[in-house]
Amino acid sequence: MTRATFAILLAALLGWTPPSVAAEPGAGVVLVAGATGRTGRHVVEQLLGQGREVRVIARSAAGARERFGDAVSIVEADVREPQTLGPAVTGVRQIVWAVGSNSRRDPSNSPEAVDYRGVRNLVEAALAAGGVEHFVLVSSR
User: Are strands 92-97 and 29-33 parallel, antiparallel or unpaired?
Assistant: First the structure.
């Protein structure tokens, strides 16, 4: 299955409207963690195609802006650092986690730091903010 196909299936599973149908008013903001990665960018493209309001978490706002332009709102944050996540989750209704650990390139991106603690950090931030209805975790590990 390609990443683009997966993103379409993910949208269908969550009951999001198909790309040919505009998002319903009040559908809320979707936060995509890992948006600049291989899977996350497809998720963002599908959501934007549906007319959804998308916010992304990026360790580098400049890198995310280069990839998405002004089509998304960007919050510079790091899932490994819980104190950075509050602004990212405020006002969000759905979260899609498409972050992947890769300790071969960067030892601080270990599975424990990202896939365990990072998920926990984002879930705890979402719970503290309130209003989050769905948290979808995408993993290929």
Answer: parallel
